[in-house]
Design goal:
It is built from 14 helices and two strands; from the N terminus they run ββαααααααααααααα. The chain has 325 residues and is mostly helical. The chain has a single domain, classed as Ammonium transporter fold. The protein has a two-stranded antiparallel ribbon. Helix 4 crosses helix 5. The longest helix has 24 residues. It is globular and about 75 Å long.
């Protein structure tokens, strides 16, 4: 509590706020979104390199559809146009990177409209949504167009791109018990959603976000440590399995989800302890779905489920004031 004199009034202005009493004028929403876009540049470049025109088409559709939906829905609510904060651009880019390259154009367009309309605007706009908008849109098309989003949605034998002529690594192991080399998962020379195939590229972009303090490092750390521990236990329980803990870590959307999706500051807890709980919960749910369900991947549903628990986690993880009980 600190009184401040007001030149226009004899009464002092009392500002009451919890510590830390630090404010950065430079950390605005456009600046944060710009850093996310910079961090996504390697993933976009890798997607275009491996998937060529498929990636360009998918990303363009999702970004343009998100911008259009943002403009329409904000006008419907009689609110000023907010495209300049870059949040809709980030949502469209993350959404496009989370989709398979060969998904039809209408899948990307519908998922974008759902992401902005139901995942964001219906709650009141940026900062008020409780679920990650991009994952809301992806979950909708995952259910509505399962045939276009499942393993068969990635296969395109007529194309000349090797990555598009094979099933995703997690689907191949789940259905046929087939494994892929760890080097392929690390570098990204496998099929999958266009932004998730290379663990290295996702790690580089994620470390940039953590360095810039846009992403809280506790969340990806909690996710990766939990997946590693549960994966190691699963390996010990089945020593003959060809799918190791390293396959769980490098495969699927784990790195992309841990750094770019789970770290959304709006839909994740605010305290350090809460972030650890959030990350550990996501990691545990991912492994639960991968090991005991018929669904090969679990990052999207794990993030959405933990988004729903974020208000409770914030209540559980309230820090104790200095000297308090």
């Amino acid at each position: 509590m600190s009184p401040q004199a007001n030149s226009n009034d004899q009464n002092p202005v009392i500002n009451v706020a919890p510590s830390p009493h630090v404010f950065s004028m430079g950390m605005t929403i456009p600046v944060m979104m710009r850093d996310v876009l910079i961090a996504l540049v390697p993933a976009v470049g890798m997607a275009v390199y491996f998937f060529h025109w498929y990636a360009v088409k998918q990303l363009s559709i999702c970004v343009l559809a998100c911008l259009g939906a943002e403009a329409v829905f904000t006008r419907m609510r009689n609110r000023p146009l907010s495209l300049g904060d870059l949040s809709a651009t980030v949502t469209g880019l993350i959404l496009g990177l989370s989709l398979p390259a060969t998904a039809p154009w209408y899948v990307g367009a519908i998922s974008a409209v759902v992401a902005i309309g139901i995942g964001k605007i219906v709650f009141g706009g940026l900062g008020m949504n409780i679920f990650n908008p991009a994952m809301v849109g992806r979950a909708f098309v995952m259910i509505a167009f399962a045939g276009k989003m499942a393993a068969s949605g990635y296969i395109d034998p007529a194309s000349g791109i090797d990555a598009l002529s094979q099933a995703t690594p997690l689907s191949a192991f789940k259905q046929f018990g087939a494994t892929v080399p760890l080097s392929s998962l690390f570098w990204g020379t496998t099929n999958g959603s266009i932004g998730e195939t290379s663990a290295l590229i996702c790690l580089l972009g994620g470390l940039y976000l953590c360095f810039r303090r846009i992403a809280a490092w506790q969340i990806p750390a909690g996710i990766l440590v939990t997946v590693a521990v549960i994966g190691a236990v699963a390996n010990l329980a089945d020593l003959h399995s060809q799918w190791t803990v390293f396959h769980h870590l490098l495969g699927g959307a784990l790195f992309f989800g841990a750094f770019f999706i789970a770290t959304d500051p709006v839909t994740s807890p605010v305290t350090s302890a809460g972030k650890w709980i959030f990350g550990i919960g996501i990691g545990a749910l991912v492994m639960l779905l991968r090991l005991f369900s018929g669904y090969p991947e679990g990052v999207m549903f794990a993030v959405l489920l933990m988004n729903a628990l974020t208000p409770l986690i914030n209540r559980w993880a309230i820090p104790r004031p200095f000297g308090g009980v």
